[in-house]
Write a structure and sequence with these properties.
InterPro entries: CDO_1, RmlC-like_jellyroll, RmlC_Cupin_sf
Number of domains: 1
Largest sheet: 5 strands, antiparallel
GO molecular function, one term: dioxygenase activity
Number of strands: 11
Keywords: Dioxygenase, Iron, Metal-binding, Oxidoreductase
CATH class: Mainly Beta
Family: Belongs to the cysteine dioxygenase family.
Structural class: alpha+beta
Helix content: 10-25%
Low-confidence stretches: 1-7
Oligomer: single chain
CATH superfamily: Jelly Rolls
Strand content: 35-45%
CATH architecture: Sandwich
Distance between the termini: 69 Å
CATH topology: Jelly Rolls
Protein name: Cysteine dioxygenase
Strand order of the largest sheet: 1-2-8-3-6
Length: 197
């Protein structure tokens, strides 16, 4: 077996060791496991999926009934759609690069941008249940993020603000409007904003 293969197995087993024992974890439990993993960019290179025409390539590294761990490889200058994480909460760790991170307030059914931060390399931020947010790699550099959620994401809602619509997407879809019909579990027409007086 070549060295790349050994590295792949080593990191996969580290992920399993850190997360497999978590049952109904708290946000603190998740963060401690994430910190214990001590992930570096080199660990993730064998797992990076090409974004293609999407905001990011995504790969599930680990999943149990209680926890999901994913890595995302971001395209340059491409913002993902505003989205929630269904009934899950979790942590996002910026392994490489910098991310603009916008959180939204819900006005009736519509997400309205509330705050935009720059999440620096090495930073982690918490994503509570029901938070609607988006992320973007605004630089020319590679951006890689590691995501841990409890429980595994199900019922994620993705918003298309131009169409005033939302869509509940399947577990294998990321934060973009699904291209495949099978990934569109339910489409929701949102109420239009009332015109300013």
């Amino acid at each position: 077996m070549n060295r790349k293969g050994l590295g792949y197995l080593d990191f996969a087993s580290r992920v399993e060791q850190c997360f497999t024992s978590l049952v109904n974890p708290t946000s603190r439990d998740l963060k401690q496991a994430l910190d214990q993993l001590r992930v570096e960019e080199q660990d993730l290179i064998p797992f990076l999926e090409d974004p293609g025409l999407r905001p990011y390539g995504r790969k599930v590294l680990f999943q149990s009934p209680h926890v999901e761990v994913l890595v995302m490889n971001w395209a340059q200058h491409f913002k993902c759609a505003p989205h929630d994480h269904g009934g899950s909460f979790g942590w996002v760790h910026v392994v490489k690069g910098e991310s603009t991170h916008t959180t939204y307030a819900m006005k009736k059914e519509l997400p309205v941008p509330k705050r935009t931060d720059l999440e620096m390399e090495g930073a982690s931020f918490f994503a509570p249940r029901k938070m609607v947010h988006d992320m973007e790699n605004r630089s020319e550099r590679r951006m890689v993020t590691l995501h841990v959620y409890a429980p595994p994401i199900s019922g994620m809602k993705v918003y298309d603000l131009e169409r005033c619509a939302a869509c509940v997407v399947s577990e294998d879809c990321g934060a973009w409007w699904p291209e495949e019909q099978r990934q569109q579990l339910r489409e929701i027409k949102l109420k239009q904003k009332e015109p300013a007086q």
